[in-house]
Automatic annotation (TrEMBL):
Transmembrane segments: 50-72, 139-162, 253-272, 278-295
GO biological process: phospholipid biosynthetic process
Record's keyword annotation contains Protease: no
Pfam families (UniProt xref): CDP-OH_P_transf
The protein, known as: CDP-alcohol phosphatidyltransferase
A GO CC term assigned to this protein in UniProt: membrane
One GO molecular-function entry: phosphotransferase activity, for other substituted phosphate groups
Domain of life where this protein originates: Bacteria
Naturally occurring in which organism (per UniProt): Sphingobacterium psychroaquaticum
InterPro entries, per database record: CDP-OH_P_trans, CDP-OH_PTrfase_TM_dom
Entry keywords, A to Z: Membrane, Transferase, Transmembrane, Transmembrane helix
């Protein structure tokens, strides 16, 4: 895995590279911009003892504040909101890099990190709907606002899931954050609503979230089940190579439906004061990309199910 060091960063390349998940799943904008900033923040946090979860929580405040500032039809105020949102995403990058640098990973941290962006964009959607109503739009604007919000949840959920599946195949369980409802439900059943209310509430929500991801990927679930049954230890290198070759092109779609693309267009709509276009873009552009992404991932999964189950190609 080779990632060229940013010329403005006077740091060992290996330390920066090790703070990343994988070159396959990293977006260019992240590698060039957010990851270097996140790395600096992570280094500072490691020195002063700030935990990854604390960084995630701080990012929520900045992201929500950004959304609030988008309510005002004033470009200067909106630009401040844009800067806050960029900083929130830098913190979101930093929390994962800090967790990998300090080996301070936890399931709760993954859950918190996953839902941080939902808080940001809930704030943004609410602010834009209220802004449009102030501009004379009827309350019906909440319909596309809510639909776009729901679409965003599905887009982020599946993009994150497919990235972790890819990481599982190329880096194994230790390099992925791939969960499944069976193990989550087993852990959930051990908790008591009376004694562990908060932990059980959070894990229950995450279990349902994971179940949604699994329900939208039936062929992928067959593949993961076959892999677990047939390859209890390390995956065959040929399977890793073949899966990476076929699946890597899909990673660009997971990047498109997540943060950077939607925010670039959000900023454009704010600059021209046509924020209603953000909902249209989410529903009519990003959602079809999500549908294609899901369909294509199922095709790839079906291909490897056939190779393993019927052709026995990767028998050890």
């Amino acid at each position: 895995m080779k990632i060229k060091e940013n010329s403005n960063i006077d740091l060992p390349e290996s330390a920066f590279v090790q703070s990343l998940k994988s070159n396959d799943t990293e977006e260019r904008i992240d590698i060039w911009f957010y990851r270097p900033i996140g790395f600096r923040i992570a280094q500072f946090c490691a020195k002063v003892g700030i935990t990854p979860n604390a960084v995630t929580i701080i990012s929520i405040f900045f992201g929500v504040a950004a959304g609030i500032l988008f309510y005002y039809p004033d470009l200067g105020t909106n630009i401040i909101g844009m800067l806050l949102l960029i900083f929130a995403n830098s913190l979101d990058s930093a929390d994962g890099q800090l967790a990998r640098m300090t080996d301070n990973k936890s399931r709760f941290g993954r859950i918190l990190d996953g839902f941080a962006g939902d808080f940001w964009f809930a704030s943004i959607h609410i602010a834009l709907c209220l802004r449009l109503m102030n501009d004379g739009w009827s309350a019906w604007i909440w319909v596309p606002g809510v639909l776009a919000g729901v679409a965003h949840v599905f887009q982020s959920a599946m993009a994150d899931y497919y990235r972790n599946v890819h990481l599982f195949f190329i880096k194994g369980e230790s390099g992925s954050e791939l969960d499944n409802t069976k193990s989550l439900q087993a852990d959930l059943d051990k908790l008591s609503w009376t004694k562990n209310f908060f932990s059980k509430f959070v894990l229950n929500g995450y279990t349902n979230y994971t179940r949604m991801q699994e329900n939208l990927s039936p062929n992928l679930q067959k593949l993961l089940s076959l892999v677990k049954t047939n390859f209890s230890g390390q995956l065959p290198m040929q399977l890793v190579t073949d899966f990476r070759s076929m699946n890597k092109p899909l990673m660009k779609y997971t990047n498109i439906v997540q943060f950077n693309t939607r925010v670039i267009f959000l900023f454009l709509w704010l600059f021209i004061d046509q924020v209603w276009l953000y909902f249209v873009f989410d529903i009519l552009v990003l959602t079809p990309i999500l549908i294609y992404m899901v369909w294509r991932q199922e095709q790839v999964s079906s291909f490897f199910v056939k190779k393993i189950a019927t052709e026995n190609k990767y028998a050890q």
